[in-house]
Specification:
Elements: E1 8-10, H1 12-23, E2 31-32, H2 33-44, E3 47-48, H3 58-64, E4 67-68, H4 72-80, E5 85-87, E6 94-97, H5 105-115, H6 121-135, E7 148-151, E8 163-166, H7 167-177, E9 181-187, E10 190-195, H8 202-205, H9 214-229, E11 232-233, H10 248-260, E12 264-269, E13 276-279, H11 283-289, E14 299-301, H12 312-319, E15 340-345, E16 348-358, E17 363-371, H13 379-395, E18 400-403
Parallel strand pairs: 1-12, 2-4, 17-18
Antiparallel strand pairs: 3-6, 5-6, 7-8, 9-10, 11-13, 12-13, 14-15, 15-16, 16-17
Helix pairs in contact: 9-10
């Protein structure tokens, strides 16, 4: 039976502050150094990966805004030296804590069964595994397969292929989907694969799926996504992407079950018709937010695919900020630019920035800064922006900043 006392009625500003504190984006930094990287990803469940690197890749951009002292080598080390994190499809292409590996066994099994539809792939996979066993990690350009494979339907659950693709790439990607291979390292956009047993602890490789029941598995994934954002509503949203089997009807059932069990708490927010929900484990944070304490404002550049931005309708409802990632929009139709980052100051979005890292010259080119309507460009705001851009230049290994207002 649901305890009616376990619900909150909060102002819009309190909701924004709750989300930003949960994200580690407001007040003093709660995530520090390499351990902070690991702590944040464990708390969020996953961060989204994208290979585009204009001024840092999306996963790196997500971390630089939260983790004090972050540099790109920290994430690389946790992935490919310490092996405490692993590249794995979750919210699309993603990075997850390695201890979550067993929770995705149902998807690896689906990929194994899907591969059986393609004549000859078993023999090619056997050959590829033997090659990697003898030679070590390989990229698709080094695997000695020639020709094209014809795929009649997608088998790679993170977003496969229809039609034709390079045979070496197809075999490596399928072995990755089935869990036989993991990404050993990345060099630019090129991925190198190695045997999973060389890098995933044997107790995780052999562990049974913790939630073999589909309903329990979906509950676990819904809880992770609520935790990743901080507050979520029971509405269709990009925040639910790639949770196989999650539909409107069973999502509603899951929200009801989680509410009745006390695992999530209803939150009514001033000015928002739809109810929101937070994790019960975040109740102490909600209680702290209700005290309306003075919090140190920070200015941060936010990644396009940041956890905070997964539900852009919710961002618009809470912050009054509309954001579209325009990278795939034709240039003549863009309102701002191809790779523009939201600019967060305190508990509000105050604008957006287009910056390009020119690595040959070690220069951060700030192409433009667009402030939101109604934002007063005070000396304090300009000073915060200057400090933010200096940190961002350092994060990108740039010693000089040129461009807008610099």
């Amino acid at each position: 039976m649901q305890d009616d006392r376990r619900r909150y009625n909060i102002t819009n500003r309190q909701a924004r502050r709750f989300v930003l504190l949960r994200q580690g984006l407001l007040g003093e930094h709660r995530y520090l150094g390499k351990q902070g990287v690991l702590d944040f990803i464990r708390g969020a469940g996953c961060i989204q990966f994208d290979p585009v690197d204009i001024c840092g890749k999306n996963a790196e951009l997500t971390l630089q805004s939260r983790v004090k002292g972050f540099d790109k080598a920290m994430l690389d080390g946790l992935l490919y030296t310490d092996r405490l994190l692993v590249d794995y499809p979750d919210k699309q292409l993603a990075i997850i804590p390695v201890e979550h590996w067993p929770h995705f066994e149902r998807y690896r099994e689906a990929a194994r069964k899907g591969g059986l539809r393609f004549e000859g792939i078993a023999a090619m996979e056997k050959e590829a595994l033997a090659f990697i066993e003898a030679k070590g990690p390989v990229s698709s350009s080094e695997l000695p397969f020639e020709g094209i494979l014809h795929w009649h339907s997608s088998i790679h659950w993170s977003g496969g292929w229809d039609g034709k693709t390079n045979a070496a790439r197809a075999v490596l990607e399928h072995l990755y989907s089935t869990g036989r291979l993991v990404i050993h390292r990345k060099k630019g956009t090129r991925k190198y694969y190695d045997l999973a047993e060389r890098h995933i602890p044997p107790e995780l490789l052999s562990a049974p799926e913790p939630f073999p029941d589909e309903g329990e598995h979906l509950k676990w994934r819904v809880l992770r996504r609520i935790g990743a954002v901080g507050l979520l509503w029971n509405r269709p949203s990009d925040a639910w992407l790639h949770i196989w089997g999650l539909k409107n009807d069973n999502r509603t059932d899951i929200f009801q079950t989680l509410t009745e069990s006390g695992e999530i708490i209803p939150v009514a927010v001033e000015g928002i018709k739809d109810g929101l929900y937070c994790l019960a484990s975040d109740e102490p944070l909600m209680e702290a937010v209700l005290q309306n304490q003075v919090l140190k404002p920070r200015m941060e550049l936010i990644a396009p695919l940041d956890c905070l931005m997964w539900d852009r309708k919710l961002v618009r409802a809470l912050f009054g900020f509309s954001y579209t990632w325009e990278i795939y929009i034709p240039a003549h139709r863009r309102k701002f630019g191809a790779y523009v980052l939201p600019l967060l100051y305190g508990d509000s979005f105050v604008g957006r920035v287009e910056a390009v890292c020119e690595r040959k010259t070690g220069t951060l080119l700030v192409k433009n800064v667009w402030f939101e309507d109604g934002v007063t460009r005070t000396k304090k705001l300009q000073s915060a922006l200057g400090g933010c851009l200096k940190r961002f230049a350092s994060f990108n290994g740039c010693s000089e900043i040129v461009g807008f207002g610099v």
